[in-house]
Amino acid sequence: MPARTGKQFLQGLKGPRDIWIGADKVEDITEHPAFAGAAQGLAGVFDLQHQFADDCLMADPETGEAINVSHMIPRSKEDILRRHKGLTRIAEYTVGIMGRSPDYMNVTYAGFAGRADEWGANGNEQGAENLVNYQKFLRRNDISLTHTIIQPTIDKAQGDAPKPGNDVALHKVGETEHGIVVRGARILATLAPFADELAVYPAAPLPPGADDYALAFCIPMSTPGLKFICRDSCAGSRNLHDHPLSSRFDEQDAFVIFDDVEVPWDRLHINCNLPVYNQVMTTGWYPNVMQQTMIRAQTKLEFAWGLGTRMCEAINGLQPPAMQMLGEIWTFSEFARSCIQSAEENAHEFGNGVWFPQGAPLVALRATLPTWFPRVNEIIRLLGSHNLLAAPTEAQLADPKLRPLIDQFMRGAGDVTAEQRARVFRLAWDFVGSALASRGEQYERFYLASGARNQQLAQLLAERARADRLVDRFLNEGSDISQKKAMPVVETV
Question: Is 149 annotated as ligand-binding?
Fold first, then answer.
Protein backbone atom coordinates (compact mmCIF):
# COMPACT_ATOMS: atom_id res chain seq x y z
CA MET A 1 0.00 0.00 0.00
CA PRO A 2 1.46 3.43 -0.90
CA ALA A 3 1.29 6.46 1.40
CA ARG A 4 -2.15 6.61 3.01
CA THR A 5 -4.73 9.38 2.97
CA GLY A 6 -6.43 10.78 6.05
CA LYS A 7 -9.55 8.78 5.27
CA GLN A 8 -7.55 5.55 5.16
CA PHE A 9 -5.83 6.45 8.45
CA LEU A 10 -9.17 7.02 10.18
CA GLN A 11 -10.54 3.76 8.85
CA GLY A 12 -7.54 1.95 10.34
CA LEU A 13 -8.38 3.28 13.81
CA LYS A 14 -11.73 1.51 13.88
CA GLY A 15 -10.24 -1.89 14.70
CA PRO A 16 -10.53 -3.41 18.20
CA ARG A 17 -8.24 -2.14 20.96
CA ASP A 18 -8.40 -1.99 24.75
CA ILE A 19 -8.21 1.76 25.43
CA TRP A 20 -9.61 3.39 28.55
CA ILE A 21 -10.28 7.03 29.41
CA GLY A 22 -12.04 7.82 32.66
CA ALA A 23 -14.64 5.08 33.13
CA ASP A 24 -15.02 4.55 29.39
CA LYS A 25 -13.66 1.67 27.41
CA VAL A 26 -13.47 3.37 24.04
CA GLU A 27 -15.34 1.60 21.27
CA ASP A 28 -14.52 3.96 18.40
CA ILE A 29 -11.58 6.35 18.61
CA THR A 30 -12.86 8.40 15.69
CA GLU A 31 -16.20 9.13 17.40
CA HIS A 32 -15.34 9.46 21.10
CA PRO A 33 -15.38 13.15 22.14
CA ALA A 34 -11.99 12.86 23.86
CA PHE A 35 -10.28 11.62 20.70
CA ALA A 36 -12.32 12.57 17.63
CA GLY A 37 -10.76 16.01 17.19
CA ALA A 38 -7.17 14.79 17.36
CA ALA A 39 -8.03 11.88 15.07
CA GLN A 40 -9.16 14.39 12.48
CA GLY A 41 -6.09 16.51 13.16
CA LEU A 42 -3.80 13.54 12.53
CA ALA A 43 -5.76 12.62 9.42
CA GLY A 44 -4.60 15.99 8.17
CA VAL A 45 -0.98 14.84 8.53
CA PHE A 46 -1.68 11.94 6.19
CA ASP A 47 -3.48 14.18 3.69
CA LEU A 48 -0.63 16.68 3.91
CA GLN A 49 1.86 14.26 2.39
CA HIS A 50 -0.23 14.16 -0.79
CA GLN A 51 -0.83 17.90 -0.83
CA PHE A 52 2.93 18.53 -0.67
CA ALA A 53 4.09 15.35 -2.36
CA ASP A 54 7.31 16.88 -3.72
CA ASP A 55 8.52 17.53 -0.17
CA CYS A 56 6.83 14.70 1.73
CA LEU A 57 6.95 11.64 -0.52
CA MET A 58 9.68 9.54 -2.10
CA ALA A 59 9.86 6.24 -3.96
CA ASP A 60 10.40 3.08 -1.93
CA PRO A 61 13.91 1.97 -2.94
CA GLU A 62 12.71 -1.58 -3.61
CA THR A 63 9.09 -1.33 -4.79
CA GLY A 64 8.97 2.19 -6.23
CA GLU A 65 5.73 2.94 -4.37
CA ALA A 66 5.26 6.37 -2.82
CA ILE A 67 6.25 6.42 0.86
CA ASN A 68 6.71 9.24 3.35
CA VAL A 69 10.20 10.73 3.26
CA SER A 70 10.48 10.23 7.03
CA HIS A 71 10.99 6.52 6.25
CA MET A 72 14.19 7.32 4.35
CA ILE A 73 17.41 5.63 5.44
CA PRO A 74 19.81 8.52 4.75
CA ARG A 75 22.89 7.69 2.70
CA SER A 76 24.24 11.22 2.14
CA LYS A 77 23.99 14.80 3.32
CA GLU A 78 21.62 15.42 0.42
CA ASP A 79 19.30 12.79 1.89
CA ILE A 80 19.40 14.57 5.25
CA LEU A 81 18.43 17.87 3.61
CA ARG A 82 15.74 16.15 1.54
CA ARG A 83 14.24 14.67 4.70
CA HIS A 84 14.33 18.10 6.36
CA LYS A 85 11.76 19.43 3.90
CA GLY A 86 9.21 16.73 4.64
CA LEU A 87 9.72 16.92 8.41
CA THR A 88 9.26 20.69 8.26
CA ARG A 89 5.92 20.35 6.46
CA ILE A 90 4.56 18.17 9.26
CA ALA A 91 5.97 20.41 12.00
CA GLU A 92 4.37 23.46 10.40
CA TYR A 93 1.00 21.71 10.19
CA THR A 94 0.97 20.95 13.93
CA VAL A 95 3.02 24.07 14.83
CA GLY A 96 5.10 21.73 16.97
CA ILE A 97 2.27 20.95 19.38
CA MET A 98 2.33 17.22 18.61
CA GLY A 99 5.61 15.84 19.89
CA ARG A 100 4.87 12.35 18.61
CA SER A 101 3.40 12.82 15.15
CA PRO A 102 3.99 9.61 13.15
CA ASP A 103 7.15 10.93 11.49
CA TYR A 104 8.97 10.62 14.84
CA MET A 105 8.74 6.84 14.86
CA ASN A 106 9.27 6.64 11.11
CA VAL A 107 12.62 8.39 11.49
CA THR A 108 13.49 6.25 14.51
CA TYR A 109 12.96 2.93 12.76
CA ALA A 110 14.63 4.08 9.56
CA GLY A 111 17.70 4.76 11.69
CA PHE A 112 17.43 1.40 13.43
CA ALA A 113 17.15 -0.45 10.10
CA GLY A 114 20.06 1.50 8.68
CA ARG A 115 22.25 0.35 11.57
CA ALA A 116 21.01 -3.24 11.55
CA ASP A 117 24.64 -4.27 11.99
CA GLU A 118 24.47 -3.01 15.59
CA TRP A 119 21.20 -4.81 16.25
CA GLY A 120 22.69 -8.01 14.84
CA ALA A 121 25.62 -8.12 17.27
CA ASN A 122 26.12 -10.72 20.01
CA GLY A 123 24.19 -13.44 18.22
CA ASN A 124 21.10 -11.32 17.50
CA GLU A 125 21.16 -11.77 13.73
CA GLN A 126 17.55 -12.96 13.59
CA GLY A 127 16.36 -10.00 15.66
CA ALA A 128 18.12 -7.60 13.30
CA GLU A 129 16.58 -9.32 10.27
CA ASN A 130 13.15 -9.05 11.89
CA LEU A 131 13.72 -5.35 12.51
CA VAL A 132 14.70 -4.65 8.90
CA ASN A 133 11.63 -6.53 7.69
CA TYR A 134 9.45 -4.60 10.11
CA GLN A 135 10.75 -1.26 8.87
CA LYS A 136 9.77 -2.30 5.35
CA PHE A 137 6.30 -3.21 6.62
CA LEU A 138 6.08 0.12 8.46
CA ARG A 139 6.91 2.26 5.46
CA ARG A 140 4.98 0.26 2.86
CA ASN A 141 1.77 0.27 4.90
CA ASP A 142 2.22 3.83 6.19
CA ILE A 143 1.64 2.61 9.74
CA SER A 144 0.99 5.02 12.60
CA LEU A 145 3.38 3.71 15.25
CA THR A 146 3.64 4.71 18.90
CA HIS A 147 6.20 3.59 21.46
CA THR A 148 6.50 2.97 25.17
CA ILE A 149 10.08 2.97 26.44
CA ILE A 150 10.08 4.33 30.02
CA GLN A 151 10.16 1.94 32.96
CA PRO A 152 7.39 2.62 35.52
CA THR A 153 8.57 3.79 38.93
CA ILE A 154 7.04 2.42 42.13
CA ASP A 155 9.81 3.37 44.56
CA LYS A 156 12.14 6.13 43.38
CA ALA A 157 14.74 5.16 45.96
CA GLN A 158 15.19 1.84 44.14
CA GLY A 159 16.41 3.65 41.01
CA ASP A 160 14.93 3.92 37.54
CA ALA A 161 16.30 0.71 36.02
CA PRO A 162 14.45 -2.50 36.92
CA LYS A 163 16.40 -5.07 38.88
CA PRO A 164 15.87 -8.83 38.83
CA GLY A 165 12.65 -9.68 40.64
CA ASN A 166 10.84 -6.47 39.68
CA ASP A 167 7.35 -7.64 38.71
CA VAL A 168 6.08 -4.21 37.60
CA ALA A 169 8.45 -3.42 34.73
CA LEU A 170 7.86 -5.18 31.42
CA HIS A 171 9.67 -8.51 31.30
CA LYS A 172 9.61 -11.90 29.65
CA VAL A 173 7.77 -14.64 31.54
CA GLY A 174 7.74 -17.51 29.06
CA GLU A 175 7.66 -18.84 25.53
CA THR A 176 5.08 -20.51 23.31
CA GLU A 177 5.22 -22.19 19.94
CA HIS A 178 4.48 -18.83 18.33
CA GLY A 179 6.65 -16.43 20.34
CA ILE A 180 7.43 -15.09 23.79
CA VAL A 181 5.05 -14.01 26.56
CA VAL A 182 5.64 -10.68 28.32
CA ARG A 183 4.11 -9.17 31.44
CA GLY A 184 4.40 -5.82 33.20
CA ALA A 185 4.03 -2.16 32.31
CA ARG A 186 5.68 0.68 30.45
CA ILE A 187 5.07 4.40 30.09
CA LEU A 188 4.48 6.80 28.33
CA ALA A 189 2.72 5.83 25.10
CA THR A 190 2.07 9.21 23.55
CA LEU A 191 -0.22 8.96 20.50
CA ALA A 192 -1.45 5.52 21.61
CA PRO A 193 -5.15 5.93 20.75
CA PHE A 194 -4.21 7.03 17.24
CA ALA A 195 -1.63 4.32 16.53
CA ASP A 196 -1.94 1.12 14.53
CA GLU A 197 0.99 -0.54 16.29
CA LEU A 198 3.06 -0.27 19.47
CA ALA A 199 6.86 -0.37 19.66
CA VAL A 200 8.99 -1.36 22.64
CA TYR A 201 12.72 -0.67 22.45
CA PRO A 202 15.58 0.39 24.74
CA ALA A 203 15.82 3.68 26.57
CA ALA A 204 18.13 3.70 29.61
CA PRO A 205 20.67 0.87 29.98
CA LEU A 206 19.82 -2.09 32.19
CA PRO A 207 22.02 -3.42 35.01
CA PRO A 208 23.73 -6.83 34.94
CA GLY A 209 21.31 -9.68 35.53
CA ALA A 210 18.30 -7.83 34.10
CA ASP A 211 18.25 -9.93 30.93
CA ASP A 212 14.51 -10.69 31.14
CA TYR A 213 13.81 -6.96 30.81
CA ALA A 214 16.00 -6.54 27.72
CA LEU A 215 13.27 -6.60 25.09
CA ALA A 216 12.44 -4.90 21.82
CA PHE A 217 9.47 -5.66 19.58
CA CYS A 218 6.53 -4.18 17.66
CA ILE A 219 2.97 -5.51 17.86
CA PRO A 220 -0.51 -4.39 16.74
CA MET A 221 -2.54 -2.26 19.12
CA SER A 222 -5.22 -4.96 18.98
CA THR A 223 -2.94 -7.64 20.47
CA PRO A 224 -4.78 -9.54 23.25
CA GLY A 225 -3.63 -8.54 26.73
CA LEU A 226 -2.59 -4.98 25.79
CA LYS A 227 -4.36 -2.35 27.88
CA PHE A 228 -3.96 1.43 27.56
CA ILE A 229 -4.98 3.72 30.43
CA CYS A 230 -5.16 7.28 29.10
CA ARG A 231 -4.75 10.48 31.06
CA ASP A 232 -7.61 12.99 31.28
CA SER A 233 -8.43 14.52 27.93
CA CYS A 234 -7.09 17.98 27.13
CA ALA A 235 -9.26 18.24 24.04
CA GLY A 236 -11.35 21.36 23.73
CA SER A 237 -14.56 21.56 21.77
CA ARG A 238 -14.40 20.94 18.02
CA ASN A 239 -14.86 24.69 17.48
CA LEU A 240 -11.73 26.03 15.78
CA HIS A 241 -12.48 29.62 16.82
CA ASP A 242 -12.80 28.84 20.51
CA HIS A 243 -10.13 26.13 20.76
CA PRO A 244 -7.88 26.40 17.69
CA LEU A 245 -5.20 24.06 19.07
CA SER A 246 -6.83 21.80 21.65
CA SER A 247 -9.65 20.99 19.24
CA ARG A 248 -7.26 18.94 17.08
CA PHE A 249 -3.79 18.49 18.60
CA ASP A 250 -4.27 16.59 21.88
CA GLU A 251 -2.11 13.57 21.01
CA GLN A 252 -2.87 11.84 24.34
CA ASP A 253 -0.57 9.85 26.64
CA ALA A 254 -1.18 6.39 28.04
CA PHE A 255 0.11 3.97 30.66
CA VAL A 256 0.53 0.56 29.01
CA ILE A 257 -0.16 -2.75 30.76
CA PHE A 258 1.01 -6.01 29.20
CA ASP A 259 -1.22 -8.69 30.70
CA ASP A 260 0.56 -11.84 29.47
CA VAL A 261 0.94 -10.58 25.91
CA GLU A 262 2.26 -12.94 23.24
CA VAL A 263 4.87 -11.41 20.93
CA PRO A 264 5.31 -13.41 17.69
CA TRP A 265 8.83 -14.56 16.86
CA ASP A 266 8.96 -12.49 13.67
CA ARG A 267 8.04 -9.32 15.60
CA LEU A 268 10.83 -9.78 18.14
CA HIS A 269 13.92 -7.57 17.73
CA ILE A 270 15.71 -8.18 21.04
CA ASN A 271 14.99 -11.26 23.13
CA CYS A 272 16.74 -10.92 26.51
CA ASN A 273 20.03 -9.95 24.85
CA LEU A 274 21.42 -7.48 27.37
CA PRO A 275 24.61 -6.42 25.48
CA VAL A 276 22.62 -5.52 22.36
CA TYR A 277 19.91 -3.80 24.40
CA ASN A 278 22.47 -1.59 26.13
CA GLN A 279 24.40 -0.79 22.94
CA VAL A 280 21.98 0.06 20.14
CA MET A 281 20.91 3.47 21.50
CA THR A 282 24.40 4.78 22.22
CA THR A 283 25.62 5.77 18.75
CA GLY A 284 23.39 7.00 15.94
CA TRP A 285 19.96 7.05 17.54
CA TYR A 286 19.98 10.53 19.04
CA PRO A 287 21.44 12.55 16.12
CA ASN A 288 19.07 10.76 13.76
CA VAL A 289 15.80 11.23 15.64
CA MET A 290 16.74 14.67 16.92
CA GLN A 291 16.58 16.07 13.40
CA GLN A 292 12.85 15.45 13.59
CA THR A 293 12.43 16.51 17.21
CA MET A 294 14.37 19.74 16.86
CA ILE A 295 12.66 20.78 13.63
CA ARG A 296 9.42 20.37 15.57
CA ALA A 297 10.74 22.35 18.53
CA GLN A 298 12.12 25.17 16.38
CA THR A 299 8.82 25.45 14.56
CA LYS A 300 6.99 25.71 17.88
CA LEU A 301 9.35 28.44 19.04
CA GLU A 302 8.92 30.42 15.84
CA PHE A 303 5.15 30.05 16.08
CA ALA A 304 5.29 31.34 19.67
CA TRP A 305 7.31 34.37 18.56
CA GLY A 306 4.89 35.13 15.74
CA LEU A 307 1.90 34.67 18.04
CA GLY A 308 3.33 36.95 20.72
CA THR A 309 4.09 39.61 18.13
CA ARG A 310 0.56 39.47 16.68
CA MET A 311 -0.89 39.63 20.17
CA CYS A 312 1.02 42.83 20.96
CA GLU A 313 0.17 44.36 17.60
CA ALA A 314 -3.54 43.77 18.23
CA ILE A 315 -3.45 46.18 21.17
CA ASN A 316 -0.61 48.44 19.94
CA GLY A 317 1.59 47.04 22.69
CA LEU A 318 4.99 46.95 20.99
CA GLN A 319 6.70 49.19 23.54
CA PRO A 320 10.35 48.52 24.55
CA PRO A 321 9.61 46.06 27.40
CA ALA A 322 7.43 43.96 25.09
CA MET A 323 9.99 44.21 22.30
CA GLN A 324 12.65 42.92 24.69
CA MET A 325 10.61 39.87 25.65
CA LEU A 326 9.61 39.12 22.07
CA GLY A 327 13.24 39.43 21.08
CA GLU A 328 14.07 36.86 23.73
CA ILE A 329 11.71 34.35 22.10
CA TRP A 330 13.17 35.16 18.68
CA THR A 331 16.68 34.41 19.93
CA PHE A 332 15.51 30.99 21.14
CA SER A 333 14.01 30.28 17.73
CA GLU A 334 17.08 31.45 15.85
CA PHE A 335 19.51 29.56 18.07
CA ALA A 336 17.43 26.43 17.45
CA ARG A 337 17.43 27.01 13.70
CA SER A 338 21.20 27.53 13.71
CA CYS A 339 21.80 24.32 15.67
CA ILE A 340 19.71 22.32 13.21
CA GLN A 341 21.44 23.87 10.21
CA SER A 342 24.88 23.23 11.70
CA ALA A 343 24.02 19.61 12.47
CA GLU A 344 22.68 18.99 8.97
CA GLU A 345 25.51 20.74 7.15
CA ASN A 346 28.03 18.69 9.14
CA ALA A 347 26.22 15.39 8.69
CA HIS A 348 28.50 12.40 8.28
CA GLU A 349 28.50 8.65 8.04
CA PHE A 350 27.75 6.80 11.27
CA GLY A 351 28.63 3.35 9.96
CA ASN A 352 27.11 0.85 7.56
CA GLY A 353 26.86 3.59 4.92
CA VAL A 354 24.21 5.47 6.91
CA TRP A 355 24.36 9.23 7.38
CA PHE A 356 22.94 11.23 10.30
CA PRO A 357 23.29 14.89 11.35
CA GLN A 358 26.19 15.86 13.58
CA GLY A 359 25.19 15.17 17.16
CA ALA A 360 26.82 17.96 19.19
CA PRO A 361 24.61 20.92 18.16
CA LEU A 362 21.49 18.84 18.70
CA VAL A 363 22.65 17.63 22.12
CA ALA A 364 23.22 21.25 23.14
CA LEU A 365 19.78 22.24 21.90
CA ARG A 366 18.11 19.25 23.50
CA ALA A 367 19.62 20.19 26.88
CA THR A 368 18.41 23.79 26.65
CA LEU A 369 14.82 23.47 25.45
CA PRO A 370 13.40 22.35 28.84
CA THR A 371 14.19 25.83 30.17
CA TRP A 372 13.26 27.74 27.03
CA PHE A 373 9.70 26.51 26.61
CA PRO A 374 8.49 27.43 30.13
CA ARG A 375 10.07 30.86 29.64
CA VAL A 376 8.27 31.29 26.31
CA ASN A 377 4.96 30.52 28.00
CA GLU A 378 5.75 32.96 30.79
CA ILE A 379 6.51 35.73 28.29
CA ILE A 380 3.26 35.25 26.39
CA ARG A 381 1.32 35.26 29.67
CA LEU A 382 3.04 38.49 30.72
CA LEU A 383 2.43 40.15 27.39
CA GLY A 384 -1.17 38.98 27.21
CA SER A 385 -2.05 39.89 30.79
CA HIS A 386 -5.81 40.10 31.45
CA ASN A 387 -6.53 40.17 27.73
CA LEU A 388 -5.95 36.42 27.61
CA LEU A 389 -9.01 36.00 29.85
CA ALA A 390 -11.30 38.41 28.01
CA ALA A 391 -11.77 37.03 24.52
CA PRO A 392 -15.36 36.32 23.41
CA THR A 393 -16.42 32.96 22.06
CA GLU A 394 -17.79 32.39 18.60
CA ALA A 395 -21.29 31.99 20.04
CA GLN A 396 -21.02 35.35 21.79
CA LEU A 397 -19.84 37.01 18.60
CA ALA A 398 -22.79 35.47 16.76
CA ASP A 399 -25.38 36.79 19.21
CA PRO A 400 -27.17 39.75 17.55
CA LYS A 401 -27.65 41.55 20.87
CA LEU A 402 -24.09 41.09 22.10
CA ARG A 403 -22.24 41.66 18.85
CA PRO A 404 -22.68 45.45 18.61
CA LEU A 405 -21.44 45.83 22.19
CA ILE A 406 -18.51 43.48 21.60
CA ASP A 407 -17.57 45.39 18.45
CA GLN A 408 -17.63 48.65 20.39
CA PHE A 409 -15.92 47.70 23.63
CA MET A 410 -13.71 44.71 22.76
CA ARG A 411 -12.08 45.84 19.55
CA GLY A 412 -8.35 46.10 19.07
CA ALA A 413 -6.07 49.02 18.26
CA GLY A 414 -6.33 50.77 14.91
CA ASP A 415 -8.36 48.76 12.43
CA VAL A 416 -8.22 45.48 14.41
CA THR A 417 -11.79 44.26 14.80
CA ALA A 418 -13.21 42.66 17.92
CA GLU A 419 -13.36 39.31 16.14
CA GLN A 420 -9.72 39.55 15.03
CA ARG A 421 -8.64 40.48 18.54
CA ALA A 422 -10.65 37.60 20.00
CA ARG A 423 -9.10 35.09 17.63
CA VAL A 424 -5.52 36.05 18.44
CA PHE A 425 -6.04 36.06 22.21
CA ARG A 426 -7.99 32.80 22.18
CA LEU A 427 -5.17 31.24 20.16
CA ALA A 428 -2.63 32.56 22.65
CA TRP A 429 -4.61 31.22 25.61
CA ASP A 430 -4.94 27.81 23.98
CA PHE A 431 -1.15 27.86 23.52
CA VAL A 432 -0.17 28.85 27.09
CA GLY A 433 -3.18 28.59 29.40
CA SER A 434 -5.45 25.71 28.42
CA ALA A 435 -5.26 22.15 29.70
CA LEU A 436 -3.43 21.22 26.49
CA ALA A 437 -0.94 24.02 27.12
CA SER A 438 -0.27 22.81 30.67
CA ARG A 439 0.31 19.28 29.43
CA GLY A 440 2.56 20.67 26.69
CA GLU A 441 4.78 22.54 29.12
CA GLN A 442 5.14 19.45 31.31
CA TYR A 443 5.95 17.42 28.21
CA GLU A 444 8.64 19.86 27.05
CA ARG A 445 10.25 19.98 30.50
CA PHE A 446 10.93 16.24 30.31
CA TYR A 447 11.12 15.68 26.56
CA LEU A 448 13.73 12.95 25.93
CA ALA A 449 14.65 13.20 29.64
CA SER A 450 14.91 16.25 31.88
CA GLY A 451 17.08 19.27 31.23
CA ALA A 452 19.41 18.21 34.05
CA ARG A 453 19.97 14.76 32.58
CA ASN A 454 20.49 16.19 29.13
CA GLN A 455 23.06 18.65 30.47
CA GLN A 456 24.87 15.76 32.15
CA LEU A 457 24.80 13.92 28.83
CA ALA A 458 26.13 17.00 27.07
CA GLN A 459 29.11 17.12 29.43
CA LEU A 460 29.70 13.41 28.93
CA LEU A 461 29.65 13.62 25.13
CA ALA A 462 31.42 16.95 24.69
CA GLU A 463 34.62 17.02 22.63
CA ARG A 464 37.31 18.35 24.98
CA ALA A 465 40.41 18.55 22.79
CA ARG A 466 40.34 22.28 22.01
CA ALA A 467 39.20 23.29 25.51
CA ASP A 468 42.04 21.26 27.03
CA ARG A 469 44.58 22.91 24.73
CA LEU A 470 43.36 26.36 25.75
CA VAL A 471 43.65 25.55 29.45
CA ASP A 472 46.90 23.58 29.22
CA ARG A 473 48.72 26.54 27.65
CA PHE A 474 48.51 28.30 31.00
CA LEU A 475 48.88 25.31 33.28
CA ASN A 476 52.06 24.09 31.58
CA GLU A 477 53.99 27.36 31.27
CA GLY A 478 56.81 28.56 33.52
CA SER A 479 56.81 31.63 35.75
CA ASP A 480 59.21 33.97 33.86
CA ILE A 481 57.23 36.05 31.36
CA SER A 482 60.41 37.33 29.69
CA GLN A 483 61.10 33.82 28.45
CA LYS A 484 57.69 33.40 26.86
CA LYS A 485 57.61 32.93 23.12
CA ALA A 486 54.77 33.85 20.82
CA MET A 487 51.48 32.29 21.78
CA PRO A 488 51.08 28.96 19.98
CA VAL A 489 48.36 28.61 17.41
CA VAL A 490 45.29 26.90 18.82
CA GLU A 491 43.44 24.87 16.24
CA THR A 492 39.75 25.65 15.97
CA VAL A 493 38.64 22.23 14.80
Answer: yes
